């Protein structure tokens, strides 16, 4: 198609000097396409993907319950530290045995773990008295906010490392520090901070190596329901409702709403160099 004395419009900038900047002809929409990238996620796959969110929620609640047990003296720091360390060693070797350079990695990781344990134990009295001047209600409110930030910005199994992932880890550790400052002794604080590193740093790394997390999600959810039922039946019902909503209802909505999807693609899209 021509315009203004026989000038033919072309889809570039340098050949349309005498035409208005916003001018296009009828050929502009000939390349219009709709929904060229269909989402072929099945119902089972969608529910499986929802397990990552369920796992993260269960981990946060299980950690809070560890704090409650320590705070109420229902268990001792030695039992918490020993049991969590045993689970960490089991998970570590189940992952490390598959690596080719296992001896070198084990020696480096042992040094890192010893440094963390030494500094953590030495600094526990300082961490214990870090927030003595802050009221307990403020501490609990800050902890809830920090764990909400952790849940919002978690990458939920995505292999890409981003700023949101660092924010998620930082907020969870900060919330753990807040809770640890309200425990009875430095040993209590040290054991809780050790569990925090295991839950929010080491465990997500191990889970990222597992493709199908459905079985782990079921085990963690069942454990959370059992332990939470001891503390509060009402909170247990709320947790079960939230888990069903996140793990089942939301994926089903996602599959159902795919038919309303209407994405358009055309010459206005960003150029892709092949």
TrEMBL record:
<feature type="transmembrane region" description="Helical">
    <location>
        <begin position="187"/>
        <end position="207"/>
    </location>
</feature>
<comment type="similarity">
    <text>Belongs to the PIGC family.</text>
</comment>
<keyword id="KW-1133">Transmembrane helix</keyword>
<keyword id="KW-0812">Transmembrane</keyword>
<comment type="pathway">
    <text>Glycolipid biosynthesis; glycosylphosphatidylinositol-anchor biosynthesis.</text>
</comment>
<keyword id="KW-0472">Membrane</keyword>
<feature type="transmembrane region" description="Helical">
    <location>
        <begin position="109"/>
        <end position="127"/>
    </location>
</feature>
<dbReference type="InterPro" id="IPR009450">
    <property type="entry name" value="Plno_GlcNAc_GPI2"/>
</dbReference>
<feature type="transmembrane region" description="Helical">
    <location>
        <begin position="238"/>
        <end position="255"/>
    </location>
</feature>
<dbReference type="Pfam" id="PF06432">
    <property type="entry name" value="GPI2"/>
</dbReference>
<feature type="transmembrane region" description="Helical">
    <location>
        <begin position="139"/>
        <end position="156"/>
    </location>
</feature>
<dbReference type="GO" id="GO:0006506">
    <property type="term" value="P:GPI anchor biosynthetic process"/>
</dbReference>
<dbReference type="GO" id="GO:0016757">
    <property type="term" value="F:glycosyltransferase activity"/>
</dbReference>
<keyword id="KW-0328">Glycosyltransferase</keyword>
<feature type="transmembrane region" description="Helical">
    <location>
        <begin position="46"/>
        <end position="70"/>
    </location>
</feature>
<protein>
    <submittedName>
        <fullName>Phosphatidylinositol N-acetylglucosaminyltransferase subunit C</fullName>
    </submittedName>
</protein>
<feature type="transmembrane region" description="Helical">
    <location>
        <begin position="214"/>
        <end position="232"/>
    </location>
</feature>
<dbReference type="GO" id="GO:0000506">
    <property type="term" value="C:glycosylphosphatidylinositol-N-acetylglucosaminyltransferase (GPI-GnT) complex"/>
</dbReference>
<keyword id="KW-0808">Transferase</keyword>
<keyword id="KW-0337">GPI-anchor biosynthesis</keyword>
């Amino acid at each position: 198609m021509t315009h203004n004395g026989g000038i033919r419009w072309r889809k570039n900038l340098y050949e349309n000097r005498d035409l208005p900047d916003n001018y296009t002809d009828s050929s502009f929409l000939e390349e219009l396409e709709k929904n060229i990238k269909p989402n072929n996620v099945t119902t089972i796959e969608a529910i499986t993907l929802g397990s990552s969110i369920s796992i993260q929620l269960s981990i946060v609640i299980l950690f809070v319950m560890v704090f409650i047990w320590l705070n109420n003296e229902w268990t001792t720091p030695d039992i918490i530290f020993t049991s969590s360390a045993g689970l960490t060693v089991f998970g570590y070797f189940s992952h490390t045995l598959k690596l080719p350079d296992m001896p070198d990695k084990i020696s480096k990781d042992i040094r890192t773990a010893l440094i963390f344990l030494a500094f953590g134990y030495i600094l526990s009295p300082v961490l214990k008295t870090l927030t003595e001047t802050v009221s307990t209600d403020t501490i609990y409110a800050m902890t809830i906010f920090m764990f909400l930030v952790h849940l919002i910005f978690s990458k939920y199994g995505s292999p890409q490392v981003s700023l949101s992932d660092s924010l998620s880890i930082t907020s969870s550790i900060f919330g753990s520090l807040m809770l640890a400052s309200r425990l009875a002794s430095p040993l209590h604080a040290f054991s809780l901070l050790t569990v925090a590193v295991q839950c929010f740093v080491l465990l997500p790394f191990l889970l990222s190596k597992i493709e199908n997390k459905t079985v782990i999600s079921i085990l963690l959810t069942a454990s959370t329901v059992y332990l939470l039922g001891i503390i509060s039946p009402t909170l247990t019902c709320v947790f079960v409702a939230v888990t069903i909503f996140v793990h089942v209802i939301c994926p089903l909505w996602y599959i159902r709403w795919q038919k309303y999807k209407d994405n358009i693609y055309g010459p206005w899209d960003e150029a892709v160099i092949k």
